[in-house]
Amino acid sequence: MPGSQRCQPAEPDAAADELRRTVAMHGFKGALINGHSRGRYLDDTFFWPILEGVEALQVPLYLHPTPPPQAVVKNMYAGNYPAEVAGALATAAWGWHIDTAIHLIRLILSGAFDHYPDLQLVIGHLGETHPFMLPRLERALPTALTHLDRPVSAYLRENVHYTFSGFNWTPAFLDLLLQVGADRIMFSTDYPYASMTRRVHSLTGSQ
């Protein structure tokens, strides 16, 4: 997002201080974190000073994909196919999105949004598979089991915004729209990795 601050989560207190400085002095509109930090996810309370700072400033935190931890890549994505195929599977084809999806679910289940109820996150790629799985998550993780203040689906509908990020496919968009509503969806391009011009031409039939 324009004017966002890239946080360094390895030093949460310093990251929160830097975010406060950039928002106050330079008008930054939020922060971005590239997924896990050496295999540690934001559900770890070690990182919660960042969440506290983001909530207090009333700016969003963009949870951006990063490759899964190396142990996950080795055990889950390497297989009976070339290494370059495994690399693509672990990142743009699958792993980026699943890792981000799990990261957000971990945050929800940790009670982070109960602790910081006004915290707002942004995730890309039309929800990183969450829209399709949302009813299943709600059914398999009831509040009687999670002991959260709200159903899992409520956090996904009330504490998260979703961007296109190059996922310019109508069926996937309609699924997200039906699950979370238009107010939770943000336009983005993922330029230069995805071409909106090509997508518009494919829809209109123009050249």
CATH class: Alpha Beta
Low-confidence spans: none
Order of helices and strands: EHEHEHHHHEHHHEHEH
Per CATH, the architecture is Alpha-Beta Barrel
Strand proportion, as a percent range, falls in 5-15%
Secondary-structure-based class equals alpha/beta
Task: Based on Cα principal axes, name the global outline.
Answer: globular
Oligomer: single chain
Helical coverage, percent range: 40-55%
Task: Please count the helical segments.
Answer: 11
Radius of gyration: 18 Å
Mean pLDDT: 92
Cα-to-Cα separation, first versus last residue = 29 Å
Give an account of the 3D structure:
The chain is an alpha/beta fold and 207 residues long. The chain has one domain (4-204): Alpha-Beta Barrel (TIM Barrel). 49% of the residues lie in helices and 10% in strands. The chain is built from eleven helices and six strands. It has helices at 12-26, 48-57, 70-77, 83-90, 95-109, 112-115, 130-140, 143-146, 152-158, 170-180, 196-204; strands spanning 4-6, 30-34, 61-64, 121-123, 160-163, 185-186. The chain has a six-stranded parallel beta sheet with strand order 1-2-3-4-5-6.
Describe the structure concisely for a colleague.
With 207 residues, this protein is α/β, with parallel strands linked by helices.
